[in-house]
Write a structure and sequence with these properties.
mainly alpha; globular; 127 residues
Length: 127
């Protein structure tokens, strides 16, 4: 991967941390995980770079949703390796990050997280 490609990838991942949580919560309510379709639609609606959306899916979708995405696009990304890469860059090496820790990271980048948390029901806005 060239220097420019690596820069674009890092910028895309940062945008998935900085901007995507707010879009997901606004579109689908607070959830522990989102479906691959919800993540992909939110990336599109937010106008984010979709070339590296597999990283966003590794961050916001559970493993079965990630596997469904891979089957659909006929790619073979490693869920664990993507989480390791994101965790190493943004979560002090932890792969145990979740929606709450992504929101905390988003706040550190200046994202508006004042109305977000990941507790609560399955996307219907209920606690």
């Amino acid at each position: 991967m060239g220097l420019l490609d690596n820069f674009k990838k890092k910028r895309a991942i940062k945008s998935y941390i900085e901007k995507l949580p707010n879009v997901l919560v606004n579109d689908y309510g607070r959830q522990e995980y989102y479906t691959q379709l919800q993540v992909r639609r939110s990336i599109e609606r937010a106008g984010l770079n979709s070339q590296h959306q597999h990283y966003a899916l590794a961050m916001y979708a559970n493993r079965p949703e990630f596997v469904a995405y891979q089957s659909e696009i006929h790619e073979n990304f490693s869920y664990e390796e993507l989480r390791e890469e994101v965790g190493g860059a943004y979560f002090s090496g932890s792969t145990e990050f979740n929606c709450s820790s992504v929101i905390a990271a988003s706040a550190s980048f200046g994202g508006d997280t004042s109305s977000m948390d990941c507790s609560g029901g399955g996307g219907d806005g209920s606690p």
